[in-house]
Amino acid sequence: MPLQIYNSLTRQKELFTPLHEGRVMMYVCGPTVYQDTHIGHGKTYVNFDVVVRYLRYLGYRVRYVQNITDVGHILDSGEDRILKGAAREHVEPMELVERYTRRYFEDMDALNVTRPDISPRASGHIPEQIALVQRLLERGHAYVVNGSVYFDVASWPTYGKLSGRRVEELLEGTRIEVNPEKRHPADFALWKRAEPGHIMQWPSPWGLGYPGWHIECSAMSTKYLGQPFDIHGGGVDNKFPHHEAEVAQSEAAYDADFARIWMHNGMVMVAGQEMHKSLGNYWTLRQAFERWSPMAIRFFIVSSHYRSPLDFSEEAVDSAARGLERLWNGVRAARDRLSTAPEGPADDDVTALLEDHKTRFLAAMDDDFNTSGAVGVLFELVRATNALLAGESPTQETLEAIDRTYRELGGEILGVVPDAFPEQGSGALADDLVELLLATRQDLRAAKQFALADRIRDRLAALGIALEDTPHGTRWHRTT
Predict the structure, then answer these.
(1) What does the pLDDT look like over 390-418, one tens digit per residue?
(2) Of 3.40.50.300, 3.40.50.620, 3.60.20.10, 3.30.420.100, which CATH number belongs to 4-265?
């Protein structure tokens, strides 16, 4: 069926039709690079990586833009996150930014997340942000107070259409002391006056200052994607106020739609609470990589729907790691048989089986990128092909067709099936030792010394190596 996407703006699934035939323009809010990324970042960027992968699989030319926030992300306290991080580590703000930008991309590479086509930095687009603020002032949607510029929410009647919040209700939800410079508590900063000693500042028509957080995404997304563009993505926690502010300022500036489809991924939860450093339930990606492989983390993420909350626990990720190993074992089994398989055409029944699983996999993906359903189809395929390998001697073309299906669905789209597995590297001592023990065990069984052969099997199991005896020999895989 055609691809349908849940649009947070209209609150329903919609048939996806890009603005320009064959091309998709997509923007996702990137990280504020003041500290290491955490599991929540991992969920967001893996989720949208799968979206980009699938759109490209469908044949679209995708321009994927994901910004780097290196200035302007203001906390409720009024502090800039970058300045707060620089003070914490006693470094220059741009030194902090460079450090954590590099570490962010290293973390994403480990998760097999495709790099964006453009990763614009907020500090590199100050002129565009100033120009957008000037346009809003000229059109009567902003006002200047003491060198700061604020968006006037009362001037834009549709403010709140994305989040569903009414301006009249926003005063009750204000968490901080009302800023006396604002006409309304919901008004938000487009440009902030730099106080004396503020390190990050740029000249503007209103004096030295720096941009607000929301204005950067409007300026950078429309610079590279135009207005309107097809898809804007981000975490559901950013729907209000960040995304709401983006919509208001962008549409007020140009009287045109901003983003046609809004996609929001669910939060990471721990025991029913949002993952947060102050609650002691916080995991950086690097901490997680010390406990699990990055691919296990990725598989954990894609095993649930992007819009659903992700319940994080060590037990849940352990279970995902075991599930990934089962999937990989199925792929390995097909690849291992290729070198000894007889030549011949692909089996028609197997071809039909693969097409059936592929059709159901793609149907799940077409239903708002339902990766959890797609993963379920992959496991069905593993069971079906394992049964085939246990009972028959498939031809090389049959095995190649199975492997292509795994690579296409599990690799190209979900990004969880690698072209080569780590333990398949030539000369790996641990693998060679396992193979040596398997050969010794086989010799013992041939000599009817079954007790000794069983001791090898049991000791390997205790070390996390499981053996599977088949009519075609003994296969092994790691369980930990």
Answers:
(1) 887 889 999 999 999 999 999 999 999 99
(2) 3.40.50.620
